[in-house]
Amino acid sequence: MAFLNDDTRVMLEDSVDKFLNAHYDFHQRRTWVEKAPGYNREHWQRFAELGWLGLPFAERHGGLGGDITDTLGLMRRFGAALVVEPYLSVVGLGGQAIAQADNQDAADSLLPELVAGQAMPVLAWEESISRGNPEHLAASARRIDGGWRLEGEKVAVIGGDLATHFVVSAQTFEDDAGPVVELFLLQADELEVTGFPTMDGHRGARLTLAAVDVDEARRLTRDGHGAGVLRQVLEQGIMMMAAEGVGAMQTLLRRTLDYTRTRRQFGVPIASFQVLQHRMVDMYIAMKNLEHLLEATANRWDQSPSHARDSALLKAQLCQSGRYVGQQAVQLHGGIGMTDELDVGHYFKRLTALGLLFGDENYHLKRAWAAL
Q1: Alpha-carbon gap, residue 129 to 310, rounded angstroms
Q2: Exposed, middle or buried by CB within 10 Å (0-12, 13-18, 19+), for 360?
Q3: C-alpha distances in angstroms, 3 versus 11, 68, 110, 304, 307?
């Protein structure tokens, strides 16, 4: 079960609210994403000082001893404020992969630096053939004297051009056994990183591994455990994305309601039109569908050894709810909803990106069906 009690969690979420209200502004965010590094470094250090980076990590690594469910309230607030700092990619993916892997020496070395805001490990798993499935990959790791030689390519590595380290998945070939998925820890300067901005104001990268040699000490998993660790980390990441999505949808609902109460047509606020009221109710229902499913998933998280079906249904609902709420918010704002100066379109872009990450709706519906 999570280490944080209810009082501690309330205090944490209150600190997040105060910080974001005082220091996070949409127009400032636009200036941060338009220039390198794409986020506010001072904010990242403040995240470390406030303990947010250490929230789901063990106390021996400088963390607060919580688990991934303790990050959900924080992620909801990040979604409401359109936070652009790479919390999901560093804490939720890269850090969790290191924490859950077999190599405790690597965890003991790197996680305290992550918690202090000094290291930014990022998970690199997706390839052009993956389509959401972490076990569909072509990158390989072959045994050489003293270690391993990695070759291949990773695409759509979220937060990749901000990383100091990469947790890279690859098929290993040993003896006559078939290939299995394992994880390796690489430094950013050991491989070719091609960064790019994503549509939602975040950052991504393509990685090229051209005969990169690593020693045995940087092999994070053994005996084919890499695939299981990847699945677990991505399922946790889906919960964090769903929480962020709920926060973004709540803000879109509030913005839309405020606008329709202000915008007048035929001498009355358009919020008085029954057909628009029905659409806003449908938006609310779509958001609540995701919120309730997230709560049910989080409540069952420690009660089952497998979360495949829960996470698949949650991701599919995130796709559906995010698409509907975003589309309706833009349309109800009319032409102004399409402008870059208004935050509504940026929320819609973030919800769209969350729907595409880790596999789309169709992929996860098939996963949920297969898990029955």
Answers
A1: 24
A2: middle
A3: 14, 10, 22, 18, 20
